[in-house]
TrEMBL record:
This is Thiamine ABC transporter substrate-binding protein. Gene3D superfamilies: Periplasmic binding protein-like II. It comes from marine sediment metagenome. GO terms for molecular function: thiamine binding; thiamine pyrophosphate binding. The keyword Signal applies.
Length: 160
């Protein structure tokens, strides 16, 4: 299970990421991003495991750290399937506090393995029920998207 003493921090991060420009460009090209502000007192740290294609701008993370006082470290873990497998293998000694980016194709594995703790976000009331794929609210919906396939009917008709 992910560290229970970070439930409130987890919500803060999820809400912050949800309302931020989550897909803003990141030109650093590194596997691990951190966001930190120098302060006399060490900032609380939060490690977020995610997939390699997750990107968030340094500006957004700096603003988050400044507003919350929390230093965020992203542990990019290959594609979503690999990231879920890494989390499953390390579930007794988690690599991260939060997992961000599990999709509906890998969600059942994560839930079966008990990777997530339940959390009743006050924002769930604003989410349509058909997006709530985990009835215990261990995995909270953040976004959705469609996959479209465009093809040329005439080409296929002419080329069998």
């Amino acid at each position: 299970m992910f560290r229970s003493n970070l439930k409130k921090v987890t919500l803060l991060v999820v809400v912050g990421l949800f309302f931020s420009a989550c897909n803003a460009g990141n030109d650093q090209g590194t596997d691990v991003q951190t966001s930190a502000q120098a302060s006399p007192k060490e900032a609380p740290k939060l490690t977020v495991m995610t997939h390699d294609s997750f990107s968030i701008s340094e500006q957004v993370m700096n603003a988050f750290t400044e507003a919350s006082g929390i230093e965020v470290r992203f542990l990019k873990s290959d594609d979503t399937g690999t990231a879920v497998n890494k989390a499953v293998l390390a579930k007794d000694k988690p690599l991260a506090d939060v997992f961000y980016g599990v999709d509906n194709t890998f969600l059942s594995r994560a839930l079966e393995e008990g990777l997530f703790e339940t959390y009743e976000s006050p924002l769930l009331k604003d989410i349509p029920d058909h997006f709530k794929l985990d009835p215990q609210n261990g995995a909270l919906p953040v976004d959705f998207g469609d996959v479209c396939l465009n093809f040329d009917k005439a080409y296929f008709a002419e080329n069998n």
